[in-house]
Structure formats: C-alpha cells, structure tokens
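Q: How do we represent a protein-ligand complex in a form that can be generated token by token?
A: Start from the inputs.
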Amino acid sequence: MSLLKQLNLSNLPNHIAIIMDGNGRWAKKKGLLRNLGHQGGAKTVREIVEVCAEINVKYLTLYAFSTENWNRPKLEVDLLMKLLISSLKKELKTLQKNNIKLVTIGNIDSLPTKVSAELKDVVEKTKNNSRLTLTLALSYSSREELIKTIKEISLKVKNNLISPENIDESVINNHLYTRNLPDVDLLIRTSGEQRISNFLLWQIAYAELYFTETLWPDFNKENLFKAILNYQNRERRFGKTSEQVK
Ligand code: IPE
Ligand code: IPE
Ligand code: MG
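Then emit the structure tokens for the protein with IPE bound:
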C-alpha cells in the first residue's frame, strides 16, 4: 500500500515545522558548489508545500535562514538572498493557484531591501488565501523573538497597559512573531542533526520531534508521509496517563 493511503487524513498534524538542513552536504557529496545544494533545496520546498496543500495540512513553517546564518561567508549569504528573490517571483503563481497564504517570521527588516520588498509583495498578494498558511522563518532566532517579546510586554507594564499578574501564556503568545499561528504539532529536521538550532523554542513545547538522515534536497513527499505516519503512531499524552487519553 502506498504511504499516502496509509495516512489517517483526519488525524494530520495541524502545524508542521521543518528545519531544512543538509543542502551543503548534499552538494559536497555530488562534488558541486554549496549553492547548487540550496537550489536543490528550493525544489524540495516547492514539492513539500504543494503536497501539504493537497492533503490539507493547515500550517507549514519552514526554517529558511537563521540569525546565525548571517555568519556564513558573504558569497553564500548573497546567493541565498538571490535565490530567495527568484523563488518568490517564480512561486507567486503557484501560491495563488493553490490558495496558499505566505507569512514570515523573523527580523525581516534586517534582510536586503530587495528581499524584504519582494516578501512584502507576496505576503500582501496572498493574504486572503486560506487553504494553507506557509510561514517562512527568515533571519529568525527564537531567543531574539523571546527578548523582543519580553521588551514589548515590559513596556506595556511600565505604561500601565498590562499588570504583571495578568501575564499568562496567551499574553506571551500574542507578542511572538508567531502570534497568529497555533503550536507546532510535528517538528521535522533533515540531515541527521538532532538539535533545534534556535528555532521556535516556545512553540515546540509539546511538539513531536522527528529526525531523518535524509538531506533536504533529497527529501520528498514520500519522506513527508513517512514522518506523518510516524507521528500518527505516537500517543500524545500532554502530561496525562495513557488510559486518560484513550
Ligand atoms: C540548510 O542547509 C540551509 C540553510 C541553513 C540556509 P545547510 O546549508 O546548513 O547544509 P549543511 O548543513 O551545510 O549540509
Ligand atoms: C539551521 O540550520 C538553520 C536553517 C535550517 C535555516 P544550520 O545548518 O544553520 O544549523 P546548525 O548551525 O548546523 O545548527
Ligand atoms: Mg546545516
């Protein structure tokens, strides 16, 4: 039986987040420049976004560029930014056709103006789409997001707009970049690394984690179905006993 047929479509993770890793190693293995690995990775993004829309996953969040990635060689950063612009230009049609809304999280103003302008354009043009919310994490750092949140809330406390005893999870949620997104259900990382690399630390509190050796440019819809199947065979207890959740 095909993997898709084995999926329980009424129990899909509502929000899948992916740390897309391994582009560089994929290129190296083939004797290619790292940049070709990133191009291969962009192809994977297209396939995974389309299949998520097809099977009706509601939220897909992709870690595309971390704050720490600014420390890579300038040439690689420049090429990544160029790839981002060309992908956005190319994919706008597909996003519209598939009713996909693009949003971003991260310090978008720190991106080159050409990139942030292109992003704002696609975000604006797709804002009324409703089938799938595709979130790109760009110049994103979870700790930076938390610091920003704490600063904003502190300022509100100082100005008597909120009292400290009223600070709860929802107040924090409402100040994060992800304020309009639900918690992550399934976090996937490709390439064999088993770490979080400063991604969505607050939002993955109860996510199921899935690590695969597959390098991101080789990842395809079958790999995604395998990850979802694995997720569906887990019992999410949220602190309760197995008997309670059955
Ligand atoms: C992920 O692939 C893409 C980005 C971080 C932008 P890498 O470029 O990290 O690939 P590896 O880890 O070097 O193989
Ligand atoms: C994490 O990948 C960031 C993205 C996938 C965009 P890295 O390859 O930069 O992570 P580390 O530095 O190896 O943990
Ligand atoms: Mg990497």
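The mean pLDDT is 98. Strands lie at 15-19, 59-66, 100-105, 132-140, 186-189, 208-211.
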